Structure formats: C-alpha cells, structure tokens
Amino acid sequence: FMNMNLIKMSLSGLMALTLSIGAQAAAPFTITGTIPQLPDSVKITLIDIENGQEGTKVAETTSKDGSFTLKGETRFPSMCNLNFSKYSTKRGDYVRVASTRLMAGDGNLALSSSVTFDSICNSYQPEPLININGGKANESFVDYIAQIGAQELADKKLGYLGANKYFETNANPDTVRKYDALKDASQKALTASRIAFIKANPATAAASWLAGKELTTQFVHDEQTLRDIAAAVSVNPDTARVNRTNRLLEFSLRFPLGRSCPDFDVTTTDNRTLKFLPQLTPGKYTLIDFWASWCGPCRAAIPHVKELVEKYPDRFTAISISLDQSEKAWRKALEEENMTWQQFWGAATNDQMAATANAFFINTIPRLILLDDKGSVICSTNKPDVITAALAKHLGE
What we know:
- Helix content is 42%, strand content 24%.
- It is of the alpha+beta class.
- Strands 13-12-11-14-15 form a 5-stranded mixed β-sheet.
- 32% of the residues are buried.
C-alpha cells in the first residue's frame, strides 16, 4: 500500500496549501457543559474540522461532577467536533463514545441536555439532543440542524442500512445496486438542500462552512455551480472566511464536472513513456480505470469494464492505468485478468505516480472516470454500476 500512501501525502500537501490561512486575530471561546449522568474522567476534546482533512485539536479537558469547561481559540468561528472519550482498560487508551458538532470561536457557549449521557452515546445524530446557547456562529448551525438535521439523519441511517444489507446478503449484486441507488439519490437531495441553505443564509458562518464542504469535493458540481456557491458566501462579514472560500474555489475549479481531461505521463506495456491525451479516441466515450493488482475492489470491477467494452464496441473505449508500485505485480495481474483493452502503468516513478494522482485528485482506488465523446469528465466514482448507468443514459440505451 506504499504507493497509495505516497499519493495521499502528495494530495494532502495540495489541500494544505488550499486551506492555509494567513495571520489573523484569534477567535477565543469558552464552552461550559452539563449533561445528566456524565461520568467523571470522560475526556472531552474539541477538534476544528475546518482545518484540513484530519482536523486540529484546539482544546481538551475531563469531566467532573457531570460538567466540564473548555477554553481555547480558533482561527475564526469554525465548525468543530466535540468528542467524548472513555478510557478502555482493554485497549489501554481512550475510545471515543460520542461526538457532536458545534461552531466555536465567537464567545461563550453553554451546553446542556435533557437526556442522559448514555442516550447521547447511543444516538446516530446527537445534535438535536443537545442544547447549545450563545455564539452567533453556532446559532446559524442550530438553524441548519433544525431545517436539515432530519434529512442528514435519514441519509446517515440509509448508509448504515446499506452496509448491513451488504453483509446480510453476502454482497448480493442486486441488493448492493438497490441500496447504492437509494444512497446516491439521498446524497443528491441532501446536497441540494445544503446549497439552498447556503443561498438563503449567505452571511452566516454555517453557510460558509457548508460552502467549504461543497468546494472541497471533486467532480460533483460543474464550474458554474461552484462559482455560484462561492459568490453566495462572499457577503460573509468575516474576511478570513471569504479569503478561505476564494482559495477553495480556486482549488475546486481544478476538478469540476465537465472539465477537459488533463494530460499526464503514462508508461506502456513495452516500457515507452507517452502523454495520455493522444491515447484517447476522438468521438468515443472513454472510461479511465485507475486500479492496482493488490486492490480487491479494483479486481472485482474488471469484469464490469470488460462487459462495457464488449457491449459498446463502436461508441466506447476503456483505458486502465495501474498504480502498482511493482511492475512485476502489474504485469502478473494483466495476464491473470486478460485485460484486452489499452493498459498503462501510471507509477513507473514516484513523480509519475504523483502527477497521475494529482490529475484527478485520486486518493482511493478503484477510481472510474468517464469522459464524454469530447474528452470532458461526466462521471467520477468507485462503483461500476454508476458508470454503467451513466453510459446507458448518455448513449441512449
């Protein structure tokens, strides 16, 4: 898995540059909380989740007599996870047992609940069970939960249900396809609701946070939608947030739906290094399949790619690009899978691998990229069924 780790390091650097914020005044906060039956010595940690993919710890304390107090500062009023962890003697470490979101950084917040700590721990979505008073930024998030929290919860439960059905049916293809389609529809509806909230509440911290989430996706929105999202929250009175949004927009415009396929180097099966773009067939839809020999889901997707190649011989072509670090493993898998369409190696060197990954922001595989007959990205997914449906739609099947 070394090659994927190298890819993630490269992409993490790119995101860090995008999310970086210049020097500015800190946003201090104090959070006090009282929860019924909150045990002593529960570790309570506040993580700023607007500061990169992993987030940043900004404050930590332990509970006593059912209460706690946290003090710290954020870069600006930011979305945070408030994590509750109990010590596990079995693991010899603290284990998170509950987490709730809040926006901290513009003064004092007072947290309370009418339910017990165990009830919070057993909830899919704790936010509606917890009352937080104070802070204009957090008030905007409370409004968001009031309007869209139920939809978020339904989407989350649908994800859990799909996972359970996957194991219950031993990954039955029809069942997986059904719940994937339900989840996809739910996600699209939730995204639409979030964008509507952004446009209705453009000056709020919650809208800016939501805009940031949409502007860090890849191949979900077209260029105009991305510009509209950023423009909506440009009225935010916090200039730090506006500057961050502008940086995120610059990043997102590298990976919109409809962008032309970028160029990068690939290595052929006879060890020649070529530019990728000239390998596309003009007038044909093209599936670019990023895979590796050690990736089980990648290998499982290969028969689906083969079916599409055979079904649409005149209007469609496929190109597979291996991210194997081992040339020997790549060639062995090619022989085992009998992959008769164009095959390239995208990881002959670390530099080549990083350039290949950066072209489409690939941090997991399989990654299936569908290009239309003009070479523009119309779909990016890790699920072959999504590609099959997209092709059927665009080819009029």
